[in-house]
Design brief:
This protein is an alpha/beta fold. The protein has a domain of about 200 residues: Rossmann fold (3-Layer(aba) Sandwich), CATH 3.40.50. About 45% of the residues lie in helices and about 15% in strands. The chain contains eight helices and eight strands. The strands form two sheets. It has a six-stranded mixed sheet with strand order 2-3-1-5-6-7, with helices on both faces. It has a two-stranded antiparallel ribbon with strand order 4-8. Strand 5, helix 3 and strand 6 form a beta-alpha-beta unit. It is elongated and about 105 Å long.
Length: about 290
């Protein structure tokens, strides 16, 4: 099994944006429905900024404020369904997740991949997370950190979070893709424990590793526009194929009707001809028999 390590230091590049251009810390929350994204956002902001009980996030929503002396902007995004990652509703969720970048211009310092701690985390679940992270582009992994939401420390079964993560192959693979970065928010933190300060420290360490750059909003939004254009083209092609198929079906239906009409006409003509071809003598005999009666 691969070792969980930090990614090597990366200097600012043409694709990045210098932090001095955007002093506010910008965070985007990404995760499946009911993963605890909204609760995590509330914990970070230190207030009830996002609805978290029985309400699904339909649109991306921002909240900003002063957190531990640092100006912070958090954007909550809609979650996807494990069982529906390719349907029409899933497509709209993907587009809305990408459009979240319009709320954190000119870019995001961190994508927090919110994952409820589960020892049954499967390959399918990991691939769904990866699919949605890659909506932001391949460079998004350099700005990603797995944030576990844990209801109770008893879930750790007496071991450390790192030990438990190492036992789950799929969780481990996801963390490795994030450069070994992960953190946790407990619903019952220890007395005196400042979970948010610890999370911000990890984000700032990641920012230093990234050469103080951000994930560009414009690049993600341009990618969303291209994907939307491709989807419109695909739907138009499907509509053309559907119309062509319907036209063929209609021609077949018309052909069957014409064939049936021809058959009916032939049957009628045959009966008429049989009646017309009856010998005159037989007709006379019929009349004669009628007279005799």
């Amino acid at each position: 099994m691969d070792e969980i390590i930090e990614i090597p230091h990366r200097h600012a590049t043409e694709q990045g944006i210098c932090l001095s251009d955007c002093p506010k810390l910008r965070i985007v929350l990404v995760g499946v429905t009911e993963s605890g994204k909204s609760a995590a956002g509330n914990a970070i902001m230190g207030k009830k900024a996002f609805d978290e009980v029985g309400i699904k996030t339909r649109m991306s929503f921002p909240c900003q404020g002063l957190v531990r002396g640092q100006q912070v902007l958090v954007v909550d995004t809609p979650g996807w369904e494990w069982f529906n990652v390719n349907g029409s509703s899933a497509w709209s969720v993907k587009m809305e997740i990408m459009r979240s970048m319009s709320l954190c211009q000119p870019g995001a310092h961190a994508l927090l991949l919110v994952v409820p701690l589960s020892f049954s985390f499967s390959q399918r679940e990991r691939r769904a997370v990866e699919e949605h992270v890659e909506l932001f582009g391949p460079e998004a992994w350099s700005y990603s950190l797995v944030l576990f939401t844990i209801l109770d420390r008893k879930q750790l079964r007496g071991s450390t979070l790192k030990q438990e993560v190492m036992l789950n192959v799929e969780l481990h693979k996801l963390i490795v893709k994030c450069g070994g970065r992960f953190c946790a928010l407990y619903s019952n933190p220890k007395a005196g424990e400042d979970q948010v300060a610890g999370l911000l420290a990890k984000i700032k360490k990641m920012m230093a590793t990234n050469g103080e750059t951000m994930l560009s909003s414009e690049k993600v939004l341009e990618r969303a526009r291209e994907m939307e254009k491709e989807e419109v083209g695909r739907l138009e092609e499907e509509q053309k194929r559907y119309e062509k198929i319907e036209k063929v079906r209609e021609l077949r239906r018309s052909g069957r009707k014409m064939n049936q009409r021809t058959v009916d006409e032939q049957k009628y003509s045959a009966r008429y001809n049989m009646s017309s071809d009856e010998p005159l003598s037989s007709r006379g005999s019929f009349r004669q028999s009628c007279k005799q009666q």
